[in-house]
Amino acid sequence: MLKLENLSKSYGKKRILEDISLEIEKGEIVSILGPSGCGKTTLLNLVLGLAKASGGRILFDGEDLTNVPMEKRGFNIVFQDYALFPNLNAYENIVYGLRNYPDRSTEEEVKDLIELLGLGKHLEQRIDELSGGQKQRVALARTLVMKPRLLLLDEPLSALDGLIKESIKERIRMVARQLDLTTLIVTHDPEEALTLSDKVLIINEGRIAQFGTPVEIVNSPANGFIRRFILSQLTVKRDNIFRLFALETGPVNVAPRVHAEAPSLAAS
Ligand SMILES: Nc1ncnc2c1ncn2[C@@H]1O[C@H](COP(=O)(O)OP(=O)(O)OP(=O)(O)O)[C@@H](O)[C@H]1O
C-alpha cells in the first residue's frame, strides 16, 4: 500500500502542494487529475523520488521512503516522451535494463510481457519505425521487465488518438490486473481519468479537491470546482455526441445546453 501523509512541497516561498494525505491499495490504478499547474507532475516526482518533499511522509508497505533515494525505492516511470533508445530496436529497448540486473526477469517472463503487450511482431523494428501506440507499449514493457513495486505513468495517452488510445487504456488495465501492480497516472483529461482508473485524485491549486472512485466523483462531486472542472466538461462532450447521433437517427430529445459555469478548456 502507498500512503501519503500530509505531504507538501514548496519552491522557495511558493507553496506547490499542501497537506496531501491518501492511501492507495496494492493493484489499484489511480489517476492524478487537475488543471495545468495544479501540481500533478510535482506529486509524481515526489513519489518517484525525483523531487524532495518539504514536509510530510511517503510510506510504501509500511516502510518510510520519504528520504530514500529514487533508485532504492523500486518505483519506475514511463515518461511522456517514452525516452526510448533510437539506435536500438524494440526488443533491445525492452531488455535494456536487464543488462545490469539479469535476474530481475526470466526469459519466459519477458516473452509473456511481450505477448501481453502485443509486441511480438515489432521486436526487430527500429524505434522510428514504430507508431506512437507501439512506442508506448515498448516503453511500458521496458519498465515492466524491471518489476517495479509501483508504476508511474506521465500523460501516457496524450500523444495518442482515437482507437489507439482505447487500446493502450485496455493494456494498462490488463497489466495492472495481471501483475497486481499499483499504478499512478498523471492526466489532465477528466474522461481519460474517469474511464481508466479505479480511483481519481483531483488536485486544485496544490490541495486535494476530491479522492474517490469515478462513480463517487460523478454522482457526488465534493465541491463547485469538481462540478465546473470535471462534470461540465463531460456533459458538454456527452451532449455534443448525443446531438450528433440525433442528427442521423432522428428525434433523440437532447436540448442544447448552456453551461454558464463551464470553465475555459484552455486552463486544462
Ligand atoms: N523546479 C521548480 N521550481 C519552481 N517552480 C516549479 C518547479 N517545478 C514546478 N514548479 C511550479 O509548480 C507548479 C506546479 O507544477 P506541475 O508541473 O506540478 O503542474 P502540473 O499540474 O503537472 O501542470 P501541467 O498539467 O501543465 O503539466 C507550477 O506553478 C510550476 O511553475
Automatic annotation (TrEMBL):
Keyword Flavoprotein annotated: no
Keyword ATP-binding: yes
UniProt superkingdom: Bacteria
Pfam families associated with the record: ABC_tran (PF00005)
InterPro entries: AAA+_ATPase, ABC_SmlMolc_Importer, ABC_transporter-like_ATP-bd, ABC_transporter-like_CS, P-loop_NTPase
Entry keyword set: ATP-binding, Cell membrane, Membrane, Nucleotide-binding, Transport
UniProt name for this protein: ABC transporter ATP-binding protein
Organism: Sutterella massiliensis
